[in-house]
Amino acid sequence: MTVQQTINAPPDNLLRRYGILAAVIIFVAAMFLILITMDNSLTFSPLWTALAFPALAISPFLILRLNVSRQIKAFLILIMLLILMPVLGVHDSFYFTLATQIGIFAAMALGLNIVVGFAGLLDLGYVAFFAVGAYLWGIFTSQTDNYIHAIGLTAPAWMFYVFLFLAVIVAAFAGILLGLPVLRLRGDYLAIVTLGFGEMIRILFKNLDHPVNITNGTLGLDGLASPPLPPFIGSITDWLVTTFKLEVGNPQVLAYQLFFYLLVLAICGAAILVAGRLDDSPIGRAWTAIREDETAALAMGVPLVRMKLLAFAMGASFAGAMGVVFAAKFKSLTPDAFDFNQSIFILAIVIVGGMGSIRGVLLGAIVVSLLNLQILQSLSSLINNLKNQNAVIPVINFAFKDWPNQLAVENYQRFVFGILLIVIVLFRPAGILPASRRKTELEDRDDVPPDLTEIPPDMSLTESGGDGHAA
Amino acid sequence: MTFSTRAANWTWTYILRPFLQILLFVLGSAALMSVIAVIVSLIFRTPASRGATLEIDLFEQLLKQLPDTLIDGITIGFLYAVIALGYTMVYGVLKFINFAHSEIFMVGGVIGFEVMIRLRDGSLLTTFPPVLLVILMIVAAMAFSGTLAVVIERFAYRPLRNAPRLVPLISAIGISLFLQDAVRALEGLGRNQFNLAYPTDSVPFLTQRLPIGPTVTISVTAIIIVISAIIMVLGLNYFVNATKIGKGIRAVSQDQATASLMGIDVNQMIAITFLVGGALGGAAGVLFGLKAGNISPFSGFIPGLKAFTAAVLGGIGNITGALLGGILLGLIEAFFSSLLPFFPSFGTSYSDIFAFMILILILIFRPTGLLGQRVDEKV
Amino acid sequence: MKIVKLFTVVIVLTLLAQLHGATPTRAQGTVIKIASHSPLSGGQSQPGNAIKNGVDLAIQQLSKPIKDLGFTVELAPFDDQADPKVGPVNAQKIVSDKAIVAVVGHYNSGVARPSSVIYNDNNLVMVSPANTAVDITDRGFPTVNRVCGRDDAQGAAGADYAANTLKIKSVYVINDKTVYGAGVAKFFVQSITAAGVKVLGNEGTEEKSNFDAVITPILSLKPDMVYFSGIYDQGALFFKQARAKGVTAQFMGPDGLDAPDTAQIGGDAVVGLVYTTTAAPAALSPDSKQFRDDYKAKFGSDAPAYGPEAYVSTAIVLKAIEKVIKDNGGKFPDRKAISDAVRATKDFKSILGTITFDKNGDPQVATYYVLKVKSADPKNWTGNEPVASSKANSPLTPATGAAASATMAATMAATAGGAAPTNAPAPATMAPTMAATMGATTTPATKAATMPATMAPTMAATMAPTMAAK
Question: Could you report the predicted ipTM of this complex, rounded to two decimals?
Answer without folding.
Answer: 0.91
